[in-house]
Design a protein that fits this description.
Elements lengths: L1 E11 L7 E6 L21 E2 L10 H5 L7 E2 L1 E4 H9 L2 H7 L2 E5 L7 H13 L3 E6 L5 H7 L5 E5 L5 H8 L4 H12 L4 E7 L7 H11 L6 E6 L5 H6 L14 H13 L4 E3 L2
Parallel strand pairs: 2-6, 6-7, 7-8, 8-9, 9-10, 10-11
Antiparallel strand pairs: 1-2, 1-5, 3-4
This protein binds iron/sulfur cluster.
Iron/sulfur cluster (SF4) binds next to loops.
Length: 270
């Protein structure tokens, strides 16, 4: 089987425990205003940076090492991806690391994801899936036995605001998280924190109230950063934020303390 991969990042230390290889699968049904990987949103197409300079020579594709600066998105087979992952297996074993499947939204390519997970488990590689949770439950159910840890994003509790700033309702996301927790899977909830969007007390209180019913390993608060801003220009896309949406340290600490007081293990950063 094959799928579209936008990047394979080796020696990653923010996408789960230990040293990891993160495989970014292309395509996402959300369109978050703060997304720093806009090249991963469009499914099944190769994205060209600086489209206007393209002369259709095809060199970017033939030379692509999965993280070329000129393009994002390459059709790879399961064997191609596994070969790349297994290059660092020794580091996984020594550091307690493994592979993380991220995106975009990895469930946009569920069959490909499943095949990769099955192969990784049979090679005894620790597996993490980093998801927005926006996918039919049957997709999650189909791969759950091959995943050691889920990184699960919760963005905004108010459904109207969620719809406005991500393009989708959060109903299915919250429902899937609840179901996943009932299967006793290991879950770390990740909350991207964006000033003026979800860092208000009301949203944090609602998040805490919802998460109290969920079994979690912990919570990671991921402060907004503007590193993706430049990519929007290169992809001829509109960036809707100003770049000044990183919450102040004092706000992040106060939010961290709110989660701690509610009994959660929480850290700032991935
Ligand atoms: S869910 Fe993640 S990849 Fe998808 S648009 Fe939002 S931030 Fe970007």
């Amino acid at each position: 089987m094959d799928g579209i991969v936008s990047n394979i990042q080796r020696f990653s230390i923010h996408d789960g425990p230990g040293i990891r290889t993160t495989v970014f699968l292309k395509g996402c049904p959300l369109s978050c205003w703060w997304c720093h990987n806009p090249e991963n949103i469009q499914p099944f197409v190769q994205e060209l940076y600086y489209q206007e300079r393209c002369v259709n020579c095809g060199n970017c594709d033939s030379l692509c090492n999965y993280n070329a600066r000129e393009s994002a998105g390459k059709r790879l087979t399961t064997e191609d991806v596994l070969k790349e992952i297994k290059k660092d297996q020794i580091f996984f074993e020594e550091s307690g690391g493994g592979v993380t499947f991220s995106g975009g939204e990895p469930f946009m390519q569920t069959e490909f994801l499943k095949e990769l997970l099955v192969e990784c488990k049979s090679a005894d590689i620790h597996t993490v899936v980093d998801t927005s949770g926006f996918t039919p439950w049957k997709n999650i159910e189909s791969i759950v036995d091959y995943v050691d840890l889920f990184l699960y994003d919760i963005k905004i509790m108010d459904n109207f605001q969620h719809l406005k700033f991500t393009g989708v309702s959060n109903n299915i996301i919250l429902d899937n998280l609840y179901r996943l927790s009932n299967l006793n899977k290991k879950i770390i909830v990740r909350i991207p924190l964006i000033k003026g969007f979800n860092d208000n007390e009301s949203n944090i209180k609602k998040t805490i109230s919802f998460l109290k019913g969920i079994q979690l390993v912990g919570i990671d608060i991921l402060p907004y950063h503007k590193m993706g801003m430049e990519k929007y220009k290169r992809l001829n896309m509109t960036y809707k934020l100003t770049g000044d949406e990183k919450p102040r340290e004092i706000v992040m600490e106060s939010i961290q303390n709110m989660f701690k007081s509610a009994g959660f293990k929480v850290k700032i950063g991935g």
